[in-house]
Amino acid sequence: MPTASSTKTDLVFVDPVGTGFSRAVGKAKDKDFWGIDQDVKSLAQLIATYISRNGRWNSPKFLIGESYGTFRSAALGNYLQQHNGMYFNGIDLISSVLDLGTISFSRPATNMPYIFLSSQLTPHRFLSQKCSRTNPPTSTPSSPKPASLPPANTLQP
Prior knowledge:
This protein is mainly alpha-helical and about 160 residues long. It is built from 3 helices and 2 strands. The protein has a domain at about 5-95.
């Protein structure tokens, strides 16, 4: 019998309308959902509908927001509590930005955006120079090549 949590839980991942692969349908346009209130209300409606249709009102509920979703999660948890009487067991914020000034290149008074960006670009630059189509990565003793794969220098794009 599987012991993975996914056999006992519902994991529902949602792209708000106009992001990712999510688009408005019918007469609605994506821009009808762009705005804090519109965005939160549409997501709250989706979550409440899902929970009602699947009989999950008494189940533990966690809301997880990533990147800009962290702002949404904070507003969404509050909205669902106030308008739908829905309470969450937790709200997880992943890759949140607590100070938007740290990612804004338009504010000359701080070097923080450059510091944070360099930590992301350094590995990328290292890998892009070390690994290319003409110079693929080689195996190391800590990560041996599986025997079923052809040698790296014979792979075609």
